[in-house]
Specification:
Helices cover about 30% and strands about 20% of the residues. With about 300 residues, the protein is an alpha/beta fold. The longest helix is centred in the last third of the chain and has 18 residues, at about 265-285. The structure holds threonylcarbamoyladenylate and magnesium ion (MG).
Length: about 300
């Protein structure tokens, strides 16, 4: 049976989702970055089912979603830097990895047994409403089978996981379109573990210079080289498509008939379109050529996802 899709703006849909979560079920919820697959963070059985539904390796820990920083403090040790970052960017596309408070409610499985915990307050009103109605932390990885493209529409969730979960809340297309930036805060040091929906320059304006984790850094267990991957082979930084390739363009100079991430060259628009465009071309062709994307603003996150999709 495939999961029902309910309008996330309906209070009754939020109430039903909260009931399902309390009973240990799995609910796809919209966030401003990508759709997340939510489960009760305190319920190890629910979290085990979530790992199974996604086919996700259990060494890869989950983000606990909370309504605000006050709630986050109950789960992680907040340094002044963490507090500043949350004050500047929460709710929003920023995940903070903090030392975990011992004895907190989030189960060990959700944290993959680490001494740290990833926390995020999502801005999407439906995610906020669900957190309020549920009344506790919700783990929510992107709502796609492990390693696949992240979902930015309710229909993407239904395609990938519809037969393995209990409910899908439809909150419309995700405004940001790439996952949150993940920043580990170690005292007054901030280390970018995953570039994402909050551009580096904005982070640095609030927090000073941000260090970057290298691939294989033990601080970022989830940064598998191959990830966010379509079935098609990807060729990056392509000026034009070759025979047999579908083309994903960027900017005003591209041929008018090409699918374009943003024909005005707007990187925010490109991020919001990225996963839906890759899905569309993946259904059409076995090889996709992608135009060069500038490494500024959200371009850093877009290029990170494209490199992983290509590897
Ligand atoms: O925008 C997002 O972050 C979305 C929405 C649904 O909130 N969620 C998401 O979750 O992208 P997921 O599970 O696909 O990615 C979480 C990332 C992984 O790379 C994971 O390894 C990392 O966060 N992570 C989680 N806990 C961590 C920890 N304690 N230390 C280091 N990295 C951690
Ligand atoms: Mg993911």
């Amino acid at each position: 049976m495939t999961a029902p899709i309910l309008n996330a703006a309906e209070p009754a849909a939020i109430a039903r989702a909260a009931d399902i979560l309390r009973a240990g079920g799995l609910v796809a919820m919209p966030t401003e970055t990508v759709y997340g697959l939510a489960a009760d963070a305190a319920n190890a059985k629910a979290v085990a089912r979530l790992y199974e539904a996604k086919g996700r390796p259990r060494f890869n820990p989950l983000i606990s979603h909370v309504p605000d920083f006050e709630a986050a403090r109950r789960h992680g040790e907040a340094s002044p830097l963490a507090e500043n970052l949350a004050a500047a960017f929460w709710p929003g596309p920023l995940t903070l990895v903090l030392p975990a408070r011992p004895g907190g409610p989030v189960c060990d499985l959700a944290r993959a047994g680490l001494a740290t915990i990833a926390l995020r307050a999502p801005a999407h009103p439906a995610a906020q409403a669900l957190l309020q109605a549920f009344g506790g932390p919700l783990v929510a990885p992107s709502a796609n089978p492990s390693e696949g493209l992240s979902p930015t529409r309710a229909a993407h969730v239904a395609e990938g996981l519809g037969d393995r979960i209990d409910l899908i809340l439809d909150g419309g297309p995700c405004a940001v379109g790439v996952e949150s930036s993940v920043v580990a805060v170690r005292g007054e040091r901030a280390i970018l573990l995953r570039p994402g929906g909050l551009p580096r320059a904005e982070l640095e304006a609030a927090a000073g210079p941000i260090e970057t984790a290298r691939p294989g850094d033990t601080g970022s267990p989830g940064m598998l080289a191959r990830h966010y991957a379509p079935k098609a082979a990807l060729r990056l930084n392509a000026a034009a498509p070759q025979a047999g390739e579908a083309f994903l363009a960027f900017g005003p100079d591209a041929p008018a008939e090409a699918l374009n991430l943003s024909s005005s060259g707007d990187l925010r628009e490109a991020a919001a379109n990225l996963f839906a465009c890759l899905r569309r071309l993946d259904a059409e062709a076995a090889r996709i050529a992608v135009a060069p994307i500038p490494e500024q603003g959200l371009g850093e996150a877009i290029n990170d996802r494209l490199r992983r999709a290509a590897s």
